Amino acid sequence: MIEKARELIEQLKLEKHPEGGYYSEIFRSEEKIIKGLPERYSGERYICTSIYFLLSGNDFSAFHRLNSDEIWHFYTGTALDIYVIGKNKELTVNTIGNLPAQGESFQVVIKKGQWFAAEVRDKNSFALVGCTVAPGFDFKDFELGKRDVLSDEFPLHKDIIARLTSA
Fold this sequence. Notes:
The chain has three helices and 13 strands. With about 170 residues, the protein is mainly beta.
C-alpha cells in the first residue's frame, strides 16, 4: 500500500469496509426522519450521513447499491473511476478527481437503486473521497452484488462485474 494512504488510514482512523477500501463515519445528523419515508425503508432514518472513503492500488469498491442517493466528493490522491449500471442496464463511467479539464468531476452523484463500483485509475496511488448519503446510510439499505446474479442480469457487463465483485 502507498505510504501516504497508510498515513491517512491511521490519521483518519479508517476501518475496512465490507465493499472494499477503508472508511470512517464523520457525520450523522442529529435529527431523524420518522414518518413519510418511501416504503423501501424499514423504519426511521437519520436525515444525512457522511464518511471518508479511501481506495488504494488494486483495492476496489465492489458493485453494490443503496436505497438512498449518494454523493461522492473528491479530496486528494488520484482519480477514481465509478462504474454505474443504470436503470436502462447501460454502463456509464464517471471519473471523480481534481482535473476538470481532463473530464474529471469534483463530485459524482449515484442515484438510489443503481449498481455501482469504483477503482483508482493509477494503481500506484490512492484516492480519498467523501460520501454523503441522504436519507442517511444504514446497512439495512446496503446490498453487495453477487457476481453470478449481476452477470446474469447484465450479461453485456460481465467482464467488469467479474473484475469488481468479490464473489
